[in-house]
Amino acid sequence: MVIAETDINKWTDNALAEEYLKTQEIAYFDEIYRRYSNKIYYKCYSILGDFVHAEDATQDIFLKLILSLAKFNQKSKFSTWLYSITYNYCIDELRRQKKNKMIYVEDGQYNDIEEDEDDALIQEENYAALQATLDVIDEADRAILIMKYQDNLMVKDIAEILSLSESAVKMRLKRAKVKFQKIFKDILRQ
């Protein structure tokens, strides 16, 4: 069966998923891939912090999507459901990496900046401190902060993804922000 590309571009995600499940026509899944592959890749990169791992994770997530598409019950938006799969996969991957990796801190990585240096150096130092903070903060805290402040997800969507109440998400966000701020300030002082 040949499907007109202009027609398929107008379909909803739910309709594409349903039609793929009915017909197994790859064009429907290709459209889902086209819509979400870059978003999934960048989400994986933001959580995993490595381009190669993000590429591998993206492919694994789409394979997982093919296998679990029948489980999509349309109670939530397709994008929220796919984000949930992505988030859970990446957190599991971080846990696997943590078990297999020795963590060490290099001394002198961040030096104090003298007051007379220009703003560009200060901004670079702040960026480096932000990255360093994201690298050392607990993966659950990092993920919830990224969902809220990088992905601009609403508390309601985060609650759905994490299978928590909205009040639990708000509390976790508050705690994660406090931890993040403390680590960030400590890194800037080094």
Can you tag this structure with a few keywords?
190 residues; mainly alpha; Rna Polymerase Sigma Factor, Chain: A; Arc Repressor Mutant, subunit A; 2 domains; 75% helix; 0% strand
Q: Helical percent range?
A: over 70%
The major sheet is characterized as: none
**Total of domains:** 2
Which percent band covers the strand fraction? under 5%
Write the CATH architecture name of the largest domain: Orthogonal Bundle
Q: CATH superfamily membership of the largest domain, which one?
A: RNA polymerase sigma factor, region 2, helix turn helix motif
Q: What is the strand tally?
A: 0
The outline comes out as elongated
Highest-level CATH class of the largest domain: Mainly Alpha
Structural classification: mainly alpha
Evaluate the radius of gyration. 20 Å
| Low-confidence spans | 102-122
Alpha plus pi helix count: 9
CATH topology of the largest domain: Rna Polymerase Sigma Factor, Chain: A
Order of helices and strands: HHHHHHHHH
Kindly state the mean pLDDT as a whole number? 80
Distance between the termini: 63 Å
Any overview of this molecule?
This protein is an all-alpha fold and 190 residues long. The chain has 2 domains: 1-103, Rna Polymerase Sigma Factor, Chain: A, CATH 1.10.1740.10; 111-190, Orthogonal Bundle (Arc Repressor Mutant, subunit A), CATH 1.10.10.10. The protein is 75% helix and 0% strand. It has 9 helices and no strands. Residues 102-122 have low confidence and may be disordered.
